[in-house]
C-alpha cells in the first residue's frame, strides 16, 4: 500500500496518533492524551455515521460492524443507551492504548521500549516520518476540505494546540488554523465539530483542574 492510500484509509484517531506523540515516542500532555484520543474516536463515529449528538449526549441507534473492532465494541455498548459526551470521554480510559495498537497495525506508529535515565523502562511509540509527512501534505493540500476527516483532524490539532508542538512552518500553521475554522463549512457533520469543541474543552479543563 502506498503512503497516499495508507493516509486515506486511516480513521481519525489513527491519524491523530501521528501528531499526539513526541520524538521520544511518548504522548504530549498538552491536553490529556486519553481524553483527546477518546474525543477523536467519538468524532470518527459521528463522521462515519455511526453516532450523532443531541443535547451534548452521544446517541447510537444500533451496533455498527466495521473494519475496526473498537467501532463494533463501542457502538454495541452505546446502542440504546445515550450518555453525556463528557461522561463518555471520562469513562473511555482505554482509548489511547486501543488507538496506539490500531495505529501500529496501520503503520503509523512503531512500538519499542525506551529507558528513562537509563533505568526505568517505558513504552515508546515512534511515528513513521513518511506517514506524518503525508498527513501534513494532505492537511495543507488543496483538497483537504473535501475529506471530512481532515478538517476534523485540523480542528483537533488546533483546539488542543498540538499544531504548535510540531515543526510546521508559518504557512502550514496558518493553513491548519484556516481548515479548523472552516470545518463546519466542509463535509464534516456539524455535530462532529461541536463534539470536538466540547470534548477538547473538557480534556484541557480536567487536565488543568486535576493538576
UniProtKB/TrEMBL annotation:
Pfam families assigned: GPP34 (PF05719)
Topology class, membrane: Peripheral membrane protein
Subcellular location, record wording: Golgi apparatus membrane
Protein name, UniProt field: Golgi phosphoprotein 3 (GPP34)
Keyword Transit peptide carried by entry: no
Sorted UniProt keywords: Golgi apparatus, Lipid-binding, Membrane
Lineage: Bacteria, Bacillati, Actinomycetota, Actinomycetes, Actinopolysporales
A single GO cellular-component term on record: endomembrane system
GO molecular function: phosphatidylinositol-4-phosphate binding
Gene3D superfamilies assigned: yeast vps74-n-term truncation variant domain like (1.10.3630.10)
Primary residence: Golgi
